[in-house]
Amino acid sequence: MSDPTRRRPPRPPAPRRRPRKDPVRVLAFEALRAVDERDAYANLVLPPLLRRARDAGELDARDAAFATELVYGTLRRQGTYDAVIAACVDRPLREVDPPVLDVLSLGAHQLLGTRTPPHAAVSASVDLARFVLSDGRAKFVNAVLRRIAAHDLDGWLTRVAPPFEDDPVEHLSLVHAHPRWIVSALWDALGPRAGREEIEALLAADNERPEVTLVARPGRSTVEELLGPDGQQARPGHWSPYAARFTEGGEPGAVPAVREGRAGVQDEGSQLVALALANAPLAGGDARWLDGCAGPGGKAALLAALAAGRGAALVAAEKQQHRARLVARALAGNPGPYQVVTADGTRPAWRPGTFDRVLVDVPCTGLGALRRRPEARWRRRPEDLDGFAPLQRALLAEALDAARPGGVVGYATCSPHPAETRAVVEDVLRGPRAGGAEWIDARPLLPGVPALGEGPDVQLWPHRHGTDAMYLALLRRTG
Ligand SMILES: C[S@@+](CC[C@H](N)C(=O)[O-])C[C@H]1O[C@@H](n2cnc3c(N)ncnc32)[C@H](O)[C@@H]1O
């Protein structure tokens, strides 16, 4: 029998290597937690986190760009990464703790959606798990990510997505990371002639980060000013005569005209909507314009500047007070008369028949702006359409009421979903409050813009026009 007293004393455990804080990944993790736990919006959560980390000297510009890419890319492709992770864990994903799932998703994105070398992606994620979670969970993260690292994205897609021929919607849903119902809705909206190539082009465009587009508010700035000396700063827009695009990334806040409110950040689709309404032919007076859903004020600021150039005045109405304040800020310094009012467009504060031109850019699902809000596609539900439907109809009916006979009404959404575009207009036109309104062909009012559909309304698309998928119907009140 051995003498226990002669046994060598157990070696003390090796001191655990405490992972150093990796500020980029810790920040990305915090942003994902906020989106997950508090239903926060990535585009609102991220800037203050980046600012704080920059102020603390933890991030330079490249790190900030990588952190942004990690957050946006992980959120955008969440459905695909969930399917891959589910294939690598031995329990349903709902039984994996959400913070662990966030670390796994970030790791999956580095492995499958970035050029990070696999060993670096795994070890950085394991260190992150040890730093923000625990050693035990880090082991689990290590095991799962090693399984994921066995294939690249294409390899995983052939494993988790059915062939297109067997189930086209499920295939596209996994390959292009959109929920099934949104794939179906977008495909319907593209029309019966849209084949696989077109729907794939649209879904792929939704996964690209859009260029930052500026608007030179007429009479206050010019595109030339925004292009900068020798056109170094930006390029002219594709369609709007007031647009300039940052093609290489750029900081709008660094542009003096933007800082001074003479220019703003605005997608070209939104510019085209405001321009089409402003340029619709009109007989008689043209002095009073209304934006009935103005917050945060992008279209109102362009309309107000155009109105000023013609001696017209804009009333910008917004139901929510804090958004009305944003409208007031966007319009400040407008050279012509305008008024910002906090008002419910379904209980108008103006007399019927007051306005020559009326815009209602109604609340909607935002399915046309998925490029900008990476988490939105996973949060939206088909039932949301029913939630917006009565409000959209009421706002359009009131807009028709607000226009004088002969006046023009624009109904706009940043969604191409037929239930919130043409169906709303057709319902209202069939209803008792149509005021004898008739369609105006909007297509000639977007000169030079191709592939706008069969009219009279227009639908813009990210993959065709490089804009958000804005919808516009123009109506003239006749009675
Ligand atoms: C799609 S956004 C408008 C965007 C705006 N046209 C722009 O370009 O900046 C819709 C706006 O309508 C507002 N809204 C919602 N219900 C409303 C109502 N009953 N009356 C007036 N505004 C309303 C929302 O608060 C939101 O600011």
Task: Output the keywords.
single chain; 479 residues; alpha/beta; N-utilizing Substance Protein B Homolog, Chain A; 4 domains; 8-stranded mixed sheet; 4-stranded antiparallel sheet; 20 helices; 12 strands; globular; disordered N terminus; binds S-adenosylmethionine
Describe the fold and architecture:
The chain is α/β, with parallel strands linked by helices and 479 residues long. The protein folds into 4 domains: 23-153, Orthogonal Bundle (N-utilizing Substance Protein B Homolog, Chain A), CATH 1.10.940.10; 161-206, no CATH class; 212-265, no CATH class; 269-476, Vaccinia Virus protein VP39 (Rossmann fold, 3-Layer(aba) Sandwich), CATH 3.40.50. Helices cover 46% and strands 12% of the residues. It has 20 helices and 12 strands. It has helices at residues 23-38, 42-55, 61-76, 78-86, 98-113, 118-132, 135-148, 153-160, 168-175, 180-190, 196-206, 223-227, 256-259, 268-279, 298-309, 321-331, 376-379, 383-402, 422-430, 462-465; strands at 212-216, 235-236, 243-246, 263-265, 288-291, 313-318, 338-342, 355-361, 403-413, 438-440, 458-459, 471-476. The strands form 2 sheets. Strands 5, 6, 7, 8, 9, 10, 11 and 12 form an 8-stranded mixed beta sheet that branches. Helix 2 runs antiparallel to helix 3, helix 5 runs parallel beside helix 7 and helix 9 packs across helix 10 (180-190). The longest helix is centred in the C-terminal third of the chain and has 20 residues, at 383-402. The protein starts with 22 loop residues before the first helix and ends with a strand. The site of S-adenosylmethionine has 19 residues, from helix 15 and strand 6.
